[in-house]
Amino acid sequence: LVSRMRFFGTTIFAEMSALAVQTGSINLGQGFPDTDGPAAMLDRAMQAIAAGGNQYPPGPGVLELRQAVSEHRAARYGLSYDPVGEVLITVGATEAVAASVLALCEPGDEVIAFEPFYDSYAASVALAQARLVPVTLRPSQGRFTFDPGELRAAITPRTRAILVNSPHNPTGTVFTRAELTTIAELCQEHDLIAVTDEVYEHLTFDGVEHIPLATLPGMRERTVMISSAGKTFSVTGWKTGWVCAPPALVTAVQTVKQFLTYTASAPWQLAVAYGLRHELEWVAALAASLQDKRDRLMEGLTAAGFEVLRPSGTYFVQTDIRPLGFSDGLDLTRRLPDLAGVVAIPTQVFYERPERGRHYVRFAFCKKDEVIDEAVTRLKRLS
Ligand code: PMP
Ligand code: GLN
Question: N or C terminus of the chain with fewer C-beta within 10 Å?
Answer without folding.
Answer: N
